[in-house]
Specification:
By secondary structure, the protein is mainly beta. The chain has a seven-stranded antiparallel sheet. It contains one helix and seven strands; from the N terminus they run E-E-H-E-E-E-E-E. The protein has a single domain, classed as 2-Layer Sandwich (Alpha-D-Glucose-1,6-Bisphosphate, Chain A, domain 4). Strand 4 (77-84) and strand 5 (87-99) form a beta hairpin. Helix content is 8%, strand content 49%. Residues 1-21 are annotated as: Disordered. InterPro entries: Bet_v_I/MLP (IPR000916), MLP-like_ligand-binding (IPR051761), START-like_dom_sf (IPR023393). It holds the Pfam family Bet_v_1. It comes from Gossypium harknessii.
């Protein structure tokens, strides 16, 4: 899944969301965003302050709200507002895993445009 190329002076996050409509059809949503941050700072932002992500890529992420649970806790539900192909979209995700030692947080999309023709969709962020 996404990772930091530690040789870069400006880390790049490759944010990936996979969608699966059937066992043979898959799709991918990716965005490359330059962020000047350590892996720990990046993980802290996505795990505990995802509502700050729009400050780093406001043209792609419009906002993030906690729908249920606590920031950075497994089982929490997060609502994202983002732009794809010039159109405002929404997604609701559940936090499936958090591992600070690996700078990992895994989301699974449960509602929104990413689910239109998807049975399962997941999004993970890992740097380090």
């Amino acid at each position: 899944m996404p990772s930091l190329n530690s040789k870069q002076t400006t880390p790049t996050s490759n944010i990936v969301g996979d969608t699966m409509a059937s066992s043979t059809l898959t799709g991918k949503l990716e965005a490359d965003v330059d962020i000047k941050a350590s892996p720990e700072q990046f993980h802290e932002m996505f795990a505990h302050k995802p509502h700050h992500v729009h400050h780093t890529c406001y043209d792609k992420i419009q906002g993030c709200d906690l729908h249920e649970g606590e920031w950075g806790k497994v089982g929490s539900i997060v609502h994202w507002s983002y732009v794809h192909d010039g159109k405002a979209k929404k997604a609701k995700e559940v936090v499936e895993a958090v591992d600070p030692d690996k700078n990992l947080i895994t989301f699974r999309v449960i509602e929104g445009e990413l689910m239109v023709c998807s049975h399962d969709s997941s999004f993970a962020q890992e740097r380090g």
